[in-house]
Amino acid sequence: MRKNHNAEAVSVQRHAERPRKRARRGLALTTPDLVLLSLLAERPMHGYQANLELERREIRDWAGISRPQVYYSLEKLARAGMIRTLETDEPAAGPERSTFETTARGRAALADALEREEWTTQRERPPFQTWIALSWQARPGVFEKQIERRRTFLEHELEREKEVLRSILEEVGHPYHEAVWMVSFVIEQFTLELRWLRKLKRELPRRARAQHPSYA
Questions:
Q1: How far apart are CA 171 and CA 56, in angstroms?
Q2: pTM of the model
Q3: What are 141-181's pLDDT values in tens digits?
Q4: pLDDT tens figures, 78-124
Q5: What is the bridge-based pairing of β-strands 83-85 and 99-102?
Q6: In what helix (H) or strand (E) does residue 95 lie, and over which residues does it extend?
Q7: Inter-residue contact 96 to 48 (CB < 8 Å)
Q8: Dist CA 78 CA 76 (whole Å)
Q9: Helices 67-79 and 31-42 meet at what angle, rounded to 10?
């Protein structure tokens, strides 16, 4: 694993050190790209450190970004001139430890991306919701079993998010921060779904087929 990290980091460093042409207009920035631009705008980091910070903040709970994607995005952003290698007086510690920071171009690209309408107009497609739609074909007893599994999962995740919220509040020192709002939002969602599951359990004995089905 360490060898792979080094190979990926070498590629990132080479792209960061090349003379850069002006970034193409309309360069498609993915969620991993945007997460890294934001992270490196806070303070300079090397790729390995960025991965550690993603884990510490549990960012992968709300953004799909794997370890390999971190190095891929760093290479892409360096090539586009959105991040750069930070000059230091310290002896080189290997390419994996090359430190990067977000450039003015990168901050502008991130700000532009945050204005996109799609952030606020897309609907999620949760697997559990799909399962409910198909559940009438399940074997006897499976519906109740799956509902109980969902309840257990939500209760576990709810407690975990509450602990995360406590840690965030200790770190930021006040409740008016985007990290607090985001985790509070997740807590509200889990709480609401647990309430809905209790309602569903009460209504389950009255489950019946559609009385007036229609088809295309």
A1: 12
A2: 0.79
A3: 999 999 999 999 999 999 999 999 999 999 999 999 999 99
A4: 999 999 998 766 555 544 578 999 999 999 999 999 999 999 999 98
A5: antiparallel
A6: none
A7: yes
A8: 6
A9: 80
Residue owning tokens 């090397």: 46
Mean per-residue pLDDT of the chain: 87
CATH number of 2-120: 1.10.10.10
Q: How far is 92 from 74, CA to CA, in rounded Å?
A: 19
Block residue for tokens 């576990």: 156
Encoded tokens for 23: 């970034």
Contact 84, 16 (CB under 8 A): yes
**CA–CA dist 47, 53 (Å, integer):** 10
What pLDDT score does 60 carry? Answer: 86
Rounded to whole angstroms, how far apart are CA atoms 152 and 156?
A: 6
Measure Cα distances from 85 to 65, 68, 106, 134, 157 in Å: 22, 19, 13, 51, 38
